[in-house]
Amino acid sequence: MNSPARKILKKRTQELGNISNQSDLHRFRKDLLKKLEMKTVIKENHERAIEEMQYNFTTSFNSKCSNLFASVGADMLTVYDDNHFGDHVALVCQFKNTENLEAKTKGGPLYCLSWVDAKRSEHEQGDALIAVAGEDMVVSIVSVSESAVVQILRGGHAKAPITGLATNKNLSDIVVSLSEEEQKICMWSLKENRVIAEIINVGIGCKTMTLLEDGSLVCGFKTGSIGKRFTNFISLVSSVVANNDITTTTATTYPKKMSSVDASKDSKCYATVNFGFGQASAKSKSIGIDCIQSFEEDIEEGEDNKKKKQKKTATDNNNNNNTKKKKEDSIINAPKRRQILVAKSASSEVSVVDFSDGFDQAKIETTFRVEDAKSNAPAPTSKTNGKRTVSFGLSHDGAFLACGNGTRDGIVYVYDLNAKKNGNDGLSDDAAQPSSPLLAAKLLPHERHSGTMLDVIRSCAIAKDCRHVLGTTDANDGTNRAGIVFRYEIIPEQPKEYEPKSEGGEKEEAIEAVVEDKEN
């Protein structure tokens, strides 16, 4: 780490020193997002739209890898360092998906990526792993440290490109791949290097998916506001649920025979998830789901809520026996669990579904339309597009969402998903049913780039500390603006000697000059 990075790290540590609870940290990050401005423009070495972009939020033993973000576009995977070079972006590695006769891969365009937990890596300095896939119908696992492919998963897809990948930080052995055209989903074991389960005939237009901690999948389709949660997919390989850390076992934990489900014949393998989007007309296809992401994690509960729960329990159980009291005390002290699904439709509606109490009691937390979005906005159709559609960025704690509104205004909208209708930070249990989340930030194009940036925001990502937001555009009118990443940052204040002089100051200097000439 260089000296500018050390100074920045020291300053940021001091800033966080005064934050004592989750609510204060949430407000601090929200204030940071309001200060962001578009500063850095990165042009990648290709002329295609960037298909997908993600920060590394895996729980790898090397925690420093959260500073990395990666993008795929054309046949390129590009990995960047977002933190260790001061406020500058550094290129870490690039992978070009070319034909490899030795590995028997055809190469070609890449359409999707997903970070993979690198617990099993034996690299002495630690590592970060990324799964990428696309036209050649194989899943390649790329090592950032080695800047090379370290594993290839093949044989699951044979008829159409892979258009989606999903992983879960608590299922370190599992990668799930999706082929929209083939209507097929494959679950891979990295340890055994094979498909352990598959779903065929998933349905027409399956565009996006997310993998939950229990191993089930939630998929979104390009028509209709109903998603599918494949519940029995993981029951075929239940050992994944029983043992989250597959790397600790030495024996084979999966059935030797691959399990297969035909979704068109077995309706029990899935259940529907209603995201509450507006119903589309028979002719409209804009209601389709573009992107789904999930967040599942223990979060800190406010001290006020803990005290209220303790007081209520003490009042209700004055006459109860000690066994019941101990059980309820354990419930009080148990961490609060937040489990949500976030989905965005092609008409720029966003829905948050809370399933913290199980899917049987899942409820729509909020549904809102992105500011200035048009209900009939056309999906991106430029020649630079690949197989994916517009996606959003979700912060590592599920608190903030960044996306465009489907129009060519070049603006990134950041919403606070924790905000309740009473205006608090959403971390309190006392809030009533929430309304639309608060708009935390509206990130505008820089005036120097506004003439070349007015395109549909294609994908977004939010850094772990909320000090950077990334955005890519669709480049509808040609290739000259494709393959560009815009980074929104906090621009430091200039020293006084570099500040532009006010109009009044210039007048005073002119008067002093005239007086000096007369004296001479």
Automatic annotation (TrEMBL):
- Give the superkingdom in one word: Eukaryota
InterPro entries from the entry? PcG_WD-repeat (IPR051243), WD40/YVTN_repeat-like_dom_sf (IPR015943), WD40_repeat_dom_sf (IPR036322)
Task: Give the record's keywords alphabetically.
Answer: Repeat, Transcription, Transcription regulation, WD repeat
Report whether Thylakoid shows up as a keyword of the record: no
Q: Where is this region: Disordered?
A: 300-332, 495-520
Q: What is this protein called?
A: Uncharacterized protein
